[in-house]
Amino acid sequence: MRKNIHYILFHLLLSLRGIIRIVCKIFIAIGIVAAIVMCTDKTSVGYILPLLVLGIISWLIMIYYDKLLFKIKPSDIDLFLS
């Protein structure tokens, strides 16, 4: 029973990987572009750090999501992420 739940969880997370990566990449792009735009505007300098933190957190989620997949991968499945 526990092995079946392990397989279900793994395949569920693997199937959501593409959506998670797209959403994270969008947040990274928004953070970078908004930080660059705000660097040109001297009145909104205080918002640059939260936007960069948003981009860094999204990047970390993207990386550690893949690490989580490798960690919970069942032993009889070969996993190659590109």
* Residues in helix, %: over 70%
The total of helices stands at 2
Low-pLDDT ranges: none
Distance between the termini: 31 Å
Number of domains: 1
Rg computed from alpha carbons, rounded to a whole number of angstroms:
18 Å
Query: Residue-averaged pLDDT, rounded?
Result: 86
- As a percent range, the share of strand residues is under 5%
SSE order: HH
- Overall geometry comes to rod-shaped
* Content-based structural category: mainly alpha
Q: What's the story with the biggest beta sheet?
A: none
Please give the number of β-strands: 0
What is the strand and helix layout of this fold?
Blueprint: H1 2-40, H2 48-72
Helix pairs in contact: 1-2
From the structure above, extract its key features:
82 residues; mainly alpha; 2 helices; 78% helix; rod-shaped
